[in-house]
């Protein structure tokens, strides 16, 4: 394998950093260092270079996780953490699918206020859960967020005024967005390096969530929605409520599985980054023993690495508060810009998330409305055809991340090459979409769009936490989430001012911005395909 580098073959070039085993004078057990061939992978030490002791500890944790290998626990985590991706897409897609009929009943059309407010909720969720996860830990945010999403989702479906609908939808999205920032981090921090490609493929759960909502909407909306658009009463318009109830019930099942089946323990990398070596050791040994796997790591190995440089992260000493969240977040943000190369990576990632936020959200949030308006065929305006085609497109989108998981393992392609391929093909498909005039063409172009955009998007989601430092990982992901949501908040404005009946302007905007992403990706400094995430 091209991404396996033995000590004797390593280059002195600073861009090809030696493994920690060579660069450290820390004595570790020979069994641990020889645990598996994956132990010779180069760690992404540059992003943790501010604290040598922490870098050494992360290296030992990586070796231990690689030695234990892939277990049933990882399979469970792939599904249950992945379901968080599904919940996020469900919350956005449900609003897209019911918006027209909610507006007719409660508001009478006009500017999509609830959709706009949702972006404020997404930013709030990132700040509360995303930034908070680097202070209070991954476990609490991981477990609480989906439960919050489901409860307020039920309330949203039961509202009788547009103001209350918007408030409860806001609260539900806060939970969903907070959850999304921790899912990818939790899975990555438990995953053996040999299987890091699964962090990309896990995004197939987006497509599953989108398909679930499309099926729910397809089942309820055509049959239980207003036929008289001038007099749309609640008794004639139950479809959107049924959609919310069933969707929230599915999310609740996922939340309960997290609490009572997976029973997540705090990630070892978070624990050692906060000076809690013994707890980290106990977590690793605990799941090694549970699955009868060898683990050569000892507590003494971790303690020999020394104390982490800054005990400011010891929350057991100082506790939690809003002030502490702000101070810790500021320190974490500074870590994301600590060197020119790391700063360049952070800036390009934030730019990428901004561009995809505008383009993807414009297409995604107004998909059903666009399908009904942009073609000349009367069949395209059919509610049944609209939801059928949306279901087909979302189902096909499931397989984009699966293909991305294979592509990133090709040595000459990797993460960056996969993102460039996904962006360029998505641009071409979106431009071609503007020629669509029949239901069959709409189904085909819609499916192709979701498939190729999900190749890019899934790889970007996995790439981002891989190149952020451990102590600042969810803060970095949180900053990216803020960028994508602030940019996404522009999508209702673009649609409102850029589209008239039958206009394709929003789709041209989406395609052009996605094409620009291939250029941004080419300038990213890191290629994690040949390194282990820290």
UniProtKB/TrEMBL annotation:
Protein name from the UniProt record: DEKNAAC105620
UniProt xrefs under InterPro entries: MFS, MFS_dom, MFS_trans_sf
Pfam family of the protein (one): MFS_1
Compositional bias per record (Basic and acidic residues), positions renumbered to this chain: 13-24
Subcellular location: Membrane
Transmembrane segments: 113-133, 140-161, 167-191, 203-222, 242-261, 347-371, 391-410, 417-435, 447-464, 476-498, 504-526
Signal sequence annotation: none
Naturally occurring in which organism (per UniProt): Brettanomyces naardenensis (Yeast)
Keyword Transmembrane assigned: yes
CDD domains associated with the record: MFS_SV2_like
GO MF assignments: transmembrane transporter activity
Disordered: region residues: 1-32
Domain of life: Eukaryota
Polar residues: compositionally biased ranges: 1-11
Membrane topology classification: Multi-pass membrane protein
Segments forming domain Major facilitator superfamily (MFS) profile: 70-530
Main localization of the protein described in the UniProt heading: membrane
Keyword field: Membrane, Transmembrane, Transmembrane helix, Transport
GO CC annotations, alphabetized: membrane
């Amino acid at each position: 394998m091209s991404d396996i580098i033995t000590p004797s073959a390593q280059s002195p070039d600073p861009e090809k950093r030696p493994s920690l085993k060579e660069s450290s004078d820390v004595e570790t057990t020979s069994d641990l260092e020889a645990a598996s061939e994956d132990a010779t992978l180069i760690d992404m030490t540059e992003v943790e270079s501010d604290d040598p002791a922490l870098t050494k500890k992360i290296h030992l944790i990586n070796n231990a996780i690689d030695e234990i290998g892939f277990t049933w626990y990882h399979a469970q985590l792939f599904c249950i953490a992945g379901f968080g991706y599904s919940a996020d897409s469900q919350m956005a897609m449900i609003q897209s699918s019911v918006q027209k009929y909610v507006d007719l009943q409660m508001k009478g059309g006009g500017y999509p206020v609830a959709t706009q407010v949702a972006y404020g909720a997404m930013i709030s969720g990132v700040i509360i859960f995303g930034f908070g996860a680097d202070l209070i830990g991954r476990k609490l945010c991981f477990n609480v967020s989906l439960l919050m999403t489901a409860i307020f989702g039920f309330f949203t479906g039961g509202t009788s005024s547009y103001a209350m609908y918007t408030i409860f939808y806001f609260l539900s999205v806060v939970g969903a967005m907070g959850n999304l920032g921790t899912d990818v981090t939790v899975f990555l921090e438990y995953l053996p390096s040999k299987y890091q490609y699964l962090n990309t493929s896990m995004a197939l759960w987006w497509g599953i969530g989108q398909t679930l909502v499309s099926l729910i909407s397809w089942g309820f909306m055509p049959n239980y929605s207003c036929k008289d658009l001038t007099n749309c009463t609640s008794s004639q318009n139950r479809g959107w409520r049924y959609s919310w109830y069933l969707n929230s019930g599915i999310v609740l099942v996922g939340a309960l599985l997290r609490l009572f089946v997976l029973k997540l323990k705090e990630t070892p990398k978070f624990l050692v980054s906060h000076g809690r070596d013994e707890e980290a050791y106990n977590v690793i040994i605990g799941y090694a023993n549970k699955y009868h796997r060898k683990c050569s790591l000892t507590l003494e190995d971790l303690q020999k690495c020394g104390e982490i440089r800054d005990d400011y992260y010891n929350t057991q000493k100082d506790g939690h508060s809003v002030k502490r969240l702000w101070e810790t977040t500021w320190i974490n943000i500074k870590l994301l810009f600590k060197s020119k190369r790391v700063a360049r990576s952070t800036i390009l990632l934030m730019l990428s998330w901004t561009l995809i936020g505008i383009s993807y959200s414009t297409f995604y949030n107004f998909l059903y409305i666009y399908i009904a308006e942009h073609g000349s065929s009367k069949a395209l305006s059919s509610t049944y055809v609209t939801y059928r085609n949306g279901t087909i497109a979302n189902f096909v989108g499931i397989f984009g991340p699966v293909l991305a998981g294979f592509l990133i393992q090709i040595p000459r392609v990797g993460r960056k090459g996969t993102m460039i391929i996904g962006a360029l093909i998505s641009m071409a498909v979106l431009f071609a979409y503007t020629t669509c005039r029949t239901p069959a063409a709409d189904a085909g172009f819609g499916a192709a769009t979701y498939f190729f955009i999900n190749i890019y998007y899934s790889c970007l989601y996995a790439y981002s936490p891989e190149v952020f430092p451990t102590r600042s990982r969810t803060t970095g992901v949180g900053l990216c989430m803020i960028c994508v949501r602030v940019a996404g908040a522009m999508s209702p404005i673009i649609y409102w001012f850029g589209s008239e009946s039958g206009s394709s302007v929003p789709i041209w905007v989406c395609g052009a911005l996605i094409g620009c992403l291939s250029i941004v990706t080419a300038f990213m400094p890191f290629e994690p395909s040949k390194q282990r995430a820290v």
